[in-house]
Specification:
Elements: H1 15-25, H2 30-37, H3 41-48, H4 58-72, H5 76-98, H6 106-111, H7 114-140, E1 145-149, E2 154-157, E3 161-168, E4 173-176, E5 179-181, E6 188-194, E7 198-207, E8 214-222
Parallel strand pairs: 2-8
Antiparallel strand pairs: 1-3, 3-6, 4-5, 4-7, 7-8
Helix pairs in contact: 4-5
Length: about 230
């Protein structure tokens, strides 16, 4: 039996159902959510089904759940504790599977044929070359920038306050309307802005030292309520 079946989650703690309901209420499909968050739809579905061990790792379990909750407007504080408990269970589960993997010893390397050793050396060389190429690409490539809220290019609201959230490279320099914002270790960022009546242009710009910048604009129109 999977370790994920040991802890029975009550309806009030059903994170998956909460995420699924929020997504359906917003009329967002799994494919749309996956495109916005740059997360494979199968992982979003796994979270909605509380199938946490299907995620690629303990670290991604927390990050994916947080990003998905923010997109759907679900308070992360309501889910953080439960997701943290699932992460602990995931860690125990992954350790159990790790012990079943076969370990390669130094003795095995000694008895391998010379031709196999040459193949391994060649593979390692090309992997290293690929790694160097990737690092150069990372340095020169413009940083990724995703705006979670506001999602639409043009938004209309009556509230004079707006919270801009999104995702970028965690080492990128980020400016929102020329105000510097420091992303967290995962690249997630958030900033509250005071708006004025009428049209407000939100400029979000991410730059790296040796690359071009990535800039996204959002227009937020504040309609003043008449009492």
């Amino acid at each position: 039996m999977s370790l994920f079946n040991y802890k029975k989650i009550t309806r009030s703690e059903d994170v998956g159902q909460m995420l699924k309901t929020a997504r359906e209420n917003k009329k967002i499909s799994l494919a749309q959510a996956a495109k916005i968050l740059k997360i494979d739809a199968k992982y979003l579905l796994a979270m909605e089904e509380n199938n946490w061990h299907a995620l690629p790792g303990e670290f991604y379990l927390k990050i994916f759940a947080k990003k998905y909750a923010i997109l759907l407007g679900v308070k992360w504080t309501n889910l953080k504790k439960i997701v943290g408990e699932e992460a602990v269970i995931y860690k125990k589960w992954s350790r159990g599977h790790e012990k079943t993997r076969e370990k390669i010893t130094a003795l095995n390397l000694i008895v391998w044929p010379k031709i196999l050793k040459k193949i391994i050396i060649t593979v390692v060389f090309f992997l290293f070359l690929g790694y160097l190429s990737y690092q150069v690409w990372q340095i020169s490539n413009p940083p990724q920038l995703i705006i979670i809220t506001p999602y639409e290019e043009k938004n209309v609201q009556t509230n004079y306050n707006l919270t801009v959230t999104g995702q970028t490279d965690n080492k990128a320099r980020l400016l929102i309307n020329n105000q510097e914002v420091i992303p967290d270790a995962t690249g997630f960022f958030s900033l509250s802005l005071d708006l004025s009546a009428g049209s407000n242009i939100i400029k979000v710009e991410a730059t790296k030292k040796y690359s071009k910048s990535t800039t996204i604009y959002r227009e937020v129109v504040v309609n003043k309520l008449d009492f």
